[in-house]
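Hey, sorry to bother you again with one of my protein questions. I've been puzzling over a protein and I'd love to understand its fold better. Take your time with it, there's no hurry, and the full record follows here:
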Amino acid sequence: MSSPASPSRTAAQASEKSVLIDVRNHIGHLVLNRPAGLNALDLQMVRTLKLQLQAWAEDDDVYAVVLRGAGDKAFCAGGDIRALYDSYTGGHDLHLRFFEEEYALDLAIHDYRKPIMALMDRLVLGGGLGLVHSADLRVVTERSSLGMPEVAIGYFPDVGASYFLPRLPGELGLYLGITGARIGAADALYCGLADWHMPSQSLGRLDHMLDHLKWKSTPLKDLQAVMARLGSQRLPDPPLQRLRPAIDHFFALPDIASIIEQLQQVSVADSRQWALDTARVMQGRSPLAMAVTLELLRRGRQLSLQECFALELSLDRQWFEHGDLIEGVRALIIDKDKQPRWQPATVQALKDEDVRRFFTESES
């Protein structure tokens, strides 16, 4: 544990490689710096970010924070799943500590007293989206691709997703969480997962403007004025807007089996192919992960952000032992045979108690 007297120095020393730290023109810059690993978060990065944000919160010379990813592939592709797999299979507890500290970081960003700008260029997946969903200015580009893909590896959307996904318009959040679908900039703005769009070629100009910004009003208003010169808050023809009536219908159905069955029966021409493709994707996902996700997101609609994180942490503590994550990581990341043996194997074999058991701890 670092000395409270020198958190900034300690953070900088601890993060020479995985997080780059700089202060320019009263703006603290944090760069996730694991480009070869798509800037996936590990425990050291989480701790460094938390420590540095705490230091800047108390530093009157820092007015705002900008968060971005290094390299040309991702802002952040989520948590370092391989490290969590190795922790569990090796009999360690890093996987449990990681979730506790990652959620604490995300909650700290939600409550942060200074504005945070997140430059969400390229891939923003899972824990990357959780990191920035509470940022004040969430900026996407034409290269951005956002998603919560956890179900693809037999897991459920976490990092506060049980709070922010069900609060998207209609059933869009349930659709994104249950299928793991990715969306681009127009959809991110439409459904509320981003605030601003700007061309990626303007990112250099943004840095120049930030470095020479003459602070006049509140820091947040000054940053918004910069973005108003460079970007927009809407893009034309978001695909989710056209699909919204179908999504709202299917993903309000009572269970996963009903959703898949009705998707397969769509005959309306303009949504038939989307419906069949969605059903096909869902049939390859973990039945248990999809069903728990459906229950989690519907419960999250009625919970505070803190309650959502607590519920997700409760599920995490059970999931490595009783969920499909370990098998999903084995099949898709370790052995790469792409033949996960989900338990149960089909949606039809899934029982209500298979889902219910994960939520009994949080209810007691």
User: Anything to note?
Assistant: The beta strands are 19-24, 27-32, 64-69, 74-76, 116-119, 123-125, 137-140, 145-147, 182-183, 196-197. The radius of gyration is 21 Å.
